[in-house]
């Protein structure tokens, strides 16, 4: 494999730091030219000193001076501010942009990277939730490859390798069920953020961990899958598989099913996206049949966890609805994490926000960026009422 040059957006987060573990494991194959962080400048400085990228971006301008001074002896350019993310991905030598930013803040950098002909390794599912139709259209027009990093979508992608002539009948996205699997609404009314932040199988950033507890993560993943694999809503099913070993399943026209499995370790789908189509030997943990003697499956409880159904409904309604859902959810999760909203209050806030925002059919990218911002304002105003 020819050495690949990578930009890692959100390098200080859960996916970003695991991506750097993958880069460390393959120094001959992978090279990093861009590292970016939101506010965590100390980790960014350490990473820059180790990987010596061409450019680092600290989005929060308050920390620009600290980063600039700490790296003054290196040949690394230090940029700051939101626009700098879009500038950094244009660097000529970059082959792949790994977008591991959290939230809709990841959308503009993805767009810019596609416009510059870069392949995208996408962890930032919000990019596709907000603007899936437009993004996949750009992917075709600019002839780039969109490589999923989300474990379920990587699983589907891997199952489809070698099947270019066979269309799939449907897919099953697996869900762990999160920390509150099997609980009722009475229980959920009193859960704390500490409880919600304890995921049974994965250690991840705070926002996706809360999304996993509320099943919004699976809802966002249904939307992500629709666009990545060009599916109808009724071709996407969710099945709860608490062991998180089967990462997702494709069912073909003949009823045959392919599943991709392995221990829950995000380094595996990250590596696959960065070395695709090759599989390289690594020393990450292997599956042990003696540790997992049974796999179980159950339906998702979308009466208790309303977010999953809300997400499906936005796909049926189309237009800007998934964008509105996503923005309202980002505000809801932040409010839950700052103790301004209860766990069940999150779904209430999302529904109330969606009712207030009039539907826009066929929005442009600029429309979606504006709707994202407007929705946040509407949702913030509604927090006290939910
Ligand atoms: P995280 O919170 O751990 O890290 C987010 C990164 O983005 C950090 O580097 C942070 O500095 C940066 N960032 C945050 N806000 C920003 C902003 N406004 N502008 C620019 N940069 C910003 O998040 P994570 O868990 O690594 O998740 C990242 C993305 O990957 C999310 O979209 C998530 O849904 C997806 N994902 C994560 C996992 C996982 O295991 N963590 C699995 C699948 C998908
Ligand atoms: Mg996932």
UniProtKB/TrEMBL annotation:
Residues 146-229 form the 1-deoxy-D-xylulose 5-phosphate reductoisomerase C-terminal domain. It comes from the Bacteria. Pathway: Isoprenoid biosynthesis; isopentenyl diphosphate biosynthesis via DXP pathway; isopentenyl diphosphate from 1-deoxy-D-xylulose 5-phosphate: step 1/6. Gene3D superfamilies: 1.10.1740.10, NAD(P)-binding Rossmann-like Domain. InterPro entries: DXP_reductoisomerase (IPR003821), DXP_reductoisomerase_C (IPR013644), DXP_reductoisomerase_N (IPR013512), DXPR_C (IPR026877), DXPR_C_sf (IPR036169), NAD(P)-bd_dom_sf (IPR036291). 1-deoxy-D-xylulose 5-phosphate binds at residues 125, 151-152, 176, 199, 212, 217-218, 221. Residues 6-132 form the 1-deoxy-D-xylulose 5-phosphate reductoisomerase N-terminal domain. Pfam families: DXP_redisom_C, DXP_reductoisom, DXPR_C. This is 1-deoxy-D-xylulose 5-phosphate reductoisomerase. It comes from Sphingobacterium suaedae. The gene is dxr.
């Amino acid at each position: 494999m020819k050495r690949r040059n990578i930009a890692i957006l959100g390098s200080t987060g859960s996916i970003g730091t695991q991506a750097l573990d993958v880069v460390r494991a393959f120094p001959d194959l992978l090279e990093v030219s861009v590292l970016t962080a939101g506010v965590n400048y100390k980790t960014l400085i350490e990473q820059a000193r180790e990987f010596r990228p061409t450019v680092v971006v600290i989005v929060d301008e308050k920390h620009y001076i600290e980063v600039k001074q700490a790296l003054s002896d290196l040949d690394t350019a230090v940029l700051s501010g939101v626009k700098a993310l879009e500038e950094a991905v244009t660097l000529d030598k970059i082959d792949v942009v790994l977008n591991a930013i959290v939230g809709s803040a990841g959308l503009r950098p993805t767009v810019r990277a596609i416009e510059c002909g870069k392949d995208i390794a996408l962890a930032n599912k919000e990019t596709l939730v907000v603007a899936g139709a437009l993004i996949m259209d750009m992917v075709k027009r600019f002839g780039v490859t969109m490589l999923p990093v989300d474990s379920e979508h990587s699983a589907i992608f891997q199952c489809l390798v070698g099947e270019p002539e066979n269309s799939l009948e449907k897919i099953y996205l697996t869900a762990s069920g999160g920390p509150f699997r099997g609980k009722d609404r009475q229980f959920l009314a009193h859960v704390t953020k500490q409880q919600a932040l304890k995921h049974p199988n994965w250690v991840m950033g705070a926002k996706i961990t809360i999304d996993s507890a509320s099943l919004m993560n699976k809802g966002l993943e249904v939307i992500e899958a629709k666009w990545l694999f060009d599916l109808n809503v009724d071709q996407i099913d969710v099945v709860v598989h608490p062991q998180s070993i089967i990462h997702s399943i494709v069912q073909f026209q003949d009823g045959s099913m392919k599943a991709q499995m392995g221990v829950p370790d995000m380094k595996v789908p990250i590596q696959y996206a960065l070395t695709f189509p090759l599989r390289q030997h690594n020393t990450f943990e292997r599956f042990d049949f003696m540790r997992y003697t049974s796999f179980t499956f159950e339906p998702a409880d979308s009466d208790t966890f309303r977010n999953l159904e809300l997400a499906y409904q936005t796909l049926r309604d189309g237009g800007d609805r998934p964008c509105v859902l996503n923005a309202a959810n980002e505000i809801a999760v932040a409010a839950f994490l700052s103790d301004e909203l209860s766990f069940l209050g999150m779904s209430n806030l999302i529904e109330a926000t969606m009712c207030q925002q009039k539907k826009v059919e066929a929005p442009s990218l600029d429309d979606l960026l504006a709707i994202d911002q407007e929705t946040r304002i509407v949702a913030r105003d509604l927090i006290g009422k939910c």
